[in-house]
Amino acid sequence: MSVSARDVQRIGELARLHLEDDELERLTSDLNAILRHVDSLRDLGSTKRPEDSSQIGSKLESVSREHVEGPDKLREIPADFAPEWKEGFFVVPAPPGVHPSGDQ
Amino acid sequence: MSLQDKVLSSSEVLNFGGSGFRSLDDIKELEGGREGLNAFLAVAEPEDLEACGQGPLEGVMVALKDNICTKRLPTTCGSRILKGYRSPYEATVVRRLRRAGALIAGKTNLDEFGMGSSTENSAFGPTLNPVDRSLVPGGSSGGSAAAVAAGYVRMALGSDTGGSVRQPAAFCGVVGIKPTYGRISRYGLIAFASSLDQIGTIGATVLEASLLLEVVSGHDTRDSTSAEKPVPRYRDAAVQGIEGMVVGIPTEYFPEQLDPPVRALLDDACERLVAAGAEVRPVSLPHTEFAIPCYYVLATAEASSNLARYDGVRFGARLPAEGLDRMYELTRGNFGAEVKRRIMLGTYVLSSGYYDAYYGTAQRTRASIAHDFTAAFNEVDVLFTPTSPTPAFPLGERVLDPVAMYLSDVFTVTANLAGIPGLSVPIGTVGGLPLGGQLLGPWWGESHIIAAAGALEASYREDT
Questions:
Q1: Which domain holds residue A23?
Q2: How far is B394 from chain A (nearest CA, A)?
Q3: At A25, which CATH number?
Q4: Per-residue pLDDT tens for A58-74?
Q5: CB–CB of A17 and B344 under 8 A?
Q6: Domains in chain B, start-ordered, CATH in brackets?
Q7: Which of B10, B117, B122, B140 is catalytic?
Q8: What are the chain B neighbours of A23 within 8 Å (beta carbons)?
Q9: Per-residue pLDDT at B347
Q10: Beta-carbon neighbour count of residue B350 at 10 Å?
Q11: Is B140 considered catalytic here?
Q12: How does pLDDT run across A81-90, given as a tens digit for each residue?
């Protein structure tokens, strides 16, 4: 797989990195060189003892418990700790400068 | 009485190996002079020394890699984005050092956020190798390794995400230990790749690196990945001998491309292990060839997430700009070229459409690499390999070629991927430059690799 300068620009936006033109050119070249090397990983599944990975995968067990749905504790308004309650939300003081109704 | 029966005093530790003690003024003078190595980013002032314990390191100067949080000294990670940053808290290892009586001599140079293999990626200039100042000291803990090799301090802490303690130790001719993942608390270690990062120790001798390991190891409730396992007396392991130990030689770590002088030194080290009472036999770790691509997918993916916090709001020196997005981008423009490269690669491999092809495959490969080690350690007690394919290389040689630089780590990244302990010990010189031999052990098998390294060190000491 390879990346174009436009791809690199987009990745930069996702990573919140502003790239100058010379950086963009250099990074496109560097990332393609690295990706060529990294692409050897993709050979692993087809050529290199794929049975090892699958065997290990079958032995791994998640340590997380099964998700079990319980009663929704907030179905009733918890008046003891949330005296103000509106349409399913807690009502809290508005930050300074913000109209309490939410109007701009 | 043998060494293992003794409780070592600080003066004995300081003098073990023959080199003398240096004061803070000595370090400042050496670093500030023409022969300075740029090993330290900050040297402590006398008023910063606040040892409180009377433990095994009483009065011993220890240097810290500058990605370990200290309250009295800045913590920069070798980055412009953290220039002048002072942590509001200190790392668990720092508290343990002070409890043991150690004095924090200063903070050492590193590749920015630990990303590099030469300490050339520091925003504050490269560190020079004290063996030959035209060469790199290795990295990313190059400042710590150079400080020990130059005799500024006898012990230092580094961090090892893909070989960053062991490779610089090898390049500078000192001893470096990366323990099992979870052995040392990472609380206060600024994260690069959290599933791979581990604090490690560097010492002028196996005994000193082992004693330092013993002092900073142990469970810490502030790090949920630290293990609740008792800490053995590693200093005893350094002198216990290896009679009957079975040492595996992984064929994949001895490729035909190894330079003949390098291979000759490795062969000689194997013979010394046998002479010390060990049995040596070949083993195979078949997924080794995939270790570098696997590592650089996982490490960069984690780095892109960990370094998102440097945005000028949560962390990082904010640069003023019109609008929030522009401020983020300007602030993050303070990252150096290698950090940007890794953030970009990590963002790419985690992006929609490429996640399973890269990150998912790398995770499965990581499990296969760990499985290789499990199988090998069913047959042998430790593994012996080169630490690096070559001795130290010239400054500037690989800094513009990221793939060549990444391949410097080819023999060290597997220990981080599997989480096993590794140690580099000097095994002689090639063309006057130190070469390191690496010992890898099973999970929590630090004592085994320390014993093997101690036996090798004793054998070389007999030569002199």
A1: 5-48
A2: 21
A3: 1.10.20
A4: 455 666 777 787 776 66
A5: yes
A6: 3-240+421-463 (3.90.1300.10)
A7: B140
A8: 337, 340
A9: 97
A10: 18
A11: yes
A12: 667 777 777 7
